[in-house]
Amino acid sequence: MQSQDPVLNEAAQRLGVAMRQTEDELTRNMLAATASFINCVSGVNGDSPTEITRPDINRVVRTLANNNAYTILGGIEGQDRFGTAPVRSAYFALASTQIMSDLDNVAGFINVAQYPSQQVLEAEWGAAGNLRFLVSSIGSVTPNASVNGSDVYNVFCVGREAYACIEQDQYSASFIYRPPILDTALALNCTVGYKMAEVPRILNDLWVINLRCTLGS
Amino acid sequence: MPTIQSGTFTGTGEDIYLQIRSDVDSIKVYNYTTASAAGGVGCEFTWVRGMAAGTGLVYSKTAAVNALELDNMTAGGFTLYDTSIPVVSNPVASTSSTNAVRPVVATASTAGLVTGSTVILSGIAAAPTICGIPFDIDTVVANTSFRVRWPLANAPGAVGGAGFYRNIVSGTNIFAPRRKFIADIASVGAETVVTTTTVHEYAVGEEVRLYIPSAANGMIEADNLQGTITAVDTVNNTFTLDIDSSSFTAFAWPAAADSPYTPAQCMAFGSVAAGNQTYLDDATRNEATVGIILGGGVGFPGGDAADVMYYVAEKSDLVTTE
Questions:
Q1: Which residues of B touch A144 (CB under 8 A)?
Q2: Regarding the domain with residue range B175-285, which homologous superfamily does it belong to in the CATH classification?
């Protein structure tokens, strides 16, 4: 028999989201602090770095390829469907949702709606060249770090096995529920929480590049 | 059940950053030194969640008789902190910057700046290559100017006009050892000496990669080369790599015309000292902390220099705001 306590189930679901988001933020912060970067320089917004453009994407793809980084996803074959286009094999580019409109303006950008197949990741926004962009509201931002004092958006372009999250001592996370009888006097309150012990780590620093950009004007 | 953490520290006269992982809900601090001294000085301090940042309660011994008097602190008390959250000051206007290897930035306000502070300049049209890069500073002349601490390879090429600076307080890069911006690279014999724009924090034995993607920095031959640190100079903020750069193009700090460009960087990615270049000893340390700042000084919870302090902090089961 299993307890179907809806309150506890809801708490577990919310804590699960919180934990995975915390893992994402830690990995994001590790990459922001330790990965090498290339500034976007081909835009026209008058800042440094500039907004993201196709030549900047080509530059980072060329660098990853020169460093023998493997792409993460294979290509999507073209089909005879109106408005679609084939998608190249690609590295992942992990970005903030703030740059979505700039991505739409990149030459040759293919939004996920134009993929021949809709078997895509939920976070995916589209592809340009050999990069497929996954966006998140907690994408990396360095405040006020451009030449003009604007926020700089860090787009982590990664190849296969460029970094990893290493679990410590055989566990990455524990969900801990303490019923009222164990947790408080007179059994008034229960507690639910999680803990984890893991280390995000770049495995090959040549296979991850932070493509830094600002927002287009 | 509530979690209690207690401990002791010795005051320095400066603010004390007390790491309390459970995110403290209330804290009492006792000054063991002033508790037995003549009256008039705070000796017991209290803060409870809900009190404003920098405030708290203080029990002082009265000067006339050996009794305690309660008062509130409107400043210099307790403040929660979390160094994983970036804290960058609002932009402060600067009026000019000199064309020197250690540019001096003139400003009417140096509030919060001390030697060792890290600032980031912006909006200096004539000297864009000193903007957008974190610099440690020294020679802070109150409300007049400050100077870039670690020398650039060469002057940026132009006197800068009006712009802004921001004081980077915490949290922009919490994992260490961090990627650093390169201020200068010198070829010395068969080795290479690197100066970074902020304190590099690297150690002998660490493997470091140079990343110089732009020809604006010269020394393009060193791009992607990796070397082992053979020496560290903390006075001049340099480290020495076992890379023979004697035949390389000289390193240069870019001129205004080179902007936009990608600055030269370096990053530690392993450690020979650990016996394996990819040993999990580097670039994995999360140095962010959460806790509470105890204001320093006579009559404050951080205590004066050499004051012996004790504290008891707790995390509550339940915090309410009625």
A1: 88, 91, 120, 122, 166
A2: Ubiquitin-activating enzyme E1, FCCH domain (2.40.30.180)
